[in-house]
Specification:
It contains two helices and four strands; from the N terminus they run βαββαβ. It has 66 residues and is α+β, with helices and mostly antiparallel strands. Strands 1-4-2-3 form a four-stranded antiparallel beta sheet, with no helix packed on it. A hairpin with a 4-residue loop joins strand 2 and strand 3. It is globular and about 25 Å long. It starts with a strand and ends in an 8-residue tail after the last strand.
Length: 66
C-alpha cells in the first residue's frame, strides 16, 4: 500500500483527482482527520475537510497517479 499527501483547493481539483482515480484498477482511499472515503466517488470526496492536507492510500502503483 502506498500513502501520500495531497491538497485539493477547488471543485476543479476534486474533479480532476476523481477523474484520474476512476481510471485506475486499484482501490484508492482518501482520508482526513475523521473520515475515510472512496477516492473514486465525487460525492464522498465532499465529506472531507479540504482545509488540511489529505492522505491518499492506494493499493496499487501507477506513475501517472503518483
Amino acid at each position: 500500500m502506498r500513502e501520500f499527501e495531497i491538497r485539493l483547493r477547488s471543485v476543479q481539483d476534486v474533479q480532476d483527482f476523481v477523474d484520474l482515480a476512476t481510471t485506475k484498477p486499484f482501490t484508492i482511499l482518501v482520508c482526513d482527520d475523521f473520515h475515510q472515503v472512496n477516492g473514486k466517488s465525487f460525492m464522498e470526496m465532499f465529506s472531507l475537510n479540504f482545509n488540511n492536507r489529505l492522505l491518499v492510500r492506494s493499493e496499487g502503483y501507477d506513475w501517472e497517479f503518483d
